[in-house]
Amino acid sequence: MRIKNYMDAVLTELPNCHDGKGSLQHIGLFSGEEFHSGVRYFHYNILPPNTSIGLHKHGNDEEVYIILEGTGLMIQGDNSYSVKAGSVIVNPPFGSHSLENTGETDMKLLVFEIVI
Questions:
Q1: Three-state secondary structure string covering the chain
Q2: Alpha carbon 24 to chain centroid distance?
Q3: Can you give the pLDDT at residue 103?
Q4: In a domain, 56, yes or no
Q5: pLDDT tens digits, residue range 5-38?
Q6: Is 103 within 8 Å of 109 (Cβ atoms)?
Q7: What is the per-residue pLDDT across 51-82, written as a single tens digit (0 to 9) for each?
Q8: How many domains is the chain partitioned into structurally?
Q9: Residue 46's CB: how many other CB atoms inside 10 A?
C-alpha cells in the first residue's frame, strides 16, 4: 500500500527553484519508481509570498499544478494567467512555464509530471 500524508510530511527548503525568487518548501511524495504508469513524480510545495518557480522548459512530458491555497501568476509561453485555490494547470510538452505567488499568504500546491 502506498499512502503518504503531505500535511504530516517533513518539508525541505528548496532555494531558487529553476532560478526563481526566494526559497520554497518542498517534499517529493512519490518518485517514478513508485508508480506503474508514466508518472515521473508527485510533489507538494509551499511558496511563501513573493516566491516563484522560475521560467523553465520541459521535454516530452506534461506537468500538472493543482493550487490548493493561495493566489498567483502562471506564465505559459507568451501568456500569463491569474491562478487561485482550485486552479488546475496543465503545462504542455516542450512548453515553458513559471509560477509566482503574488498573494499575501502561502501558496500550497501539488505537482506531478507524466512522461508522454
A1: CCCCCCCCCCCEEEECHHHCCCEEEEEEEEEHHHCCCCEEEEEEEEECCCCEEEEEECCCEEEEEEEEECEEEEEECCEEEEEECCCEEEECCCCEEEEEECCCCCEEEEEEEEEC
A2: 10
A3: 98
A4: yes
A5: 999 989 999 999 999 999 999 999 999 999 999 9
A6: no
A7: 999 999 999 999 999 999 999 999 999 999 99
A8: 1
A9: 20
103 in a domain, yes or no?
A: yes
Is residue 58 included in any domain, yes or no? Answer: yes
What is the domain extent for residue 30? Answer: 12-64+86-115
For residue 108, give the CATH number of its domain.
2.60.120.10
Torsion of CA 98, 90, 110, 25, to 10 degrees: -10
Provide mean pLDDT across the span 71-96: 97
First to last CA, the chain: 26
Identify whether 74 is part of a domain: no
pLDDT confidence tier of residue 2, bands split at 50, 70 and 90: confident
Judge whether 49 and 87 are in contact, CB under 8 Å: no
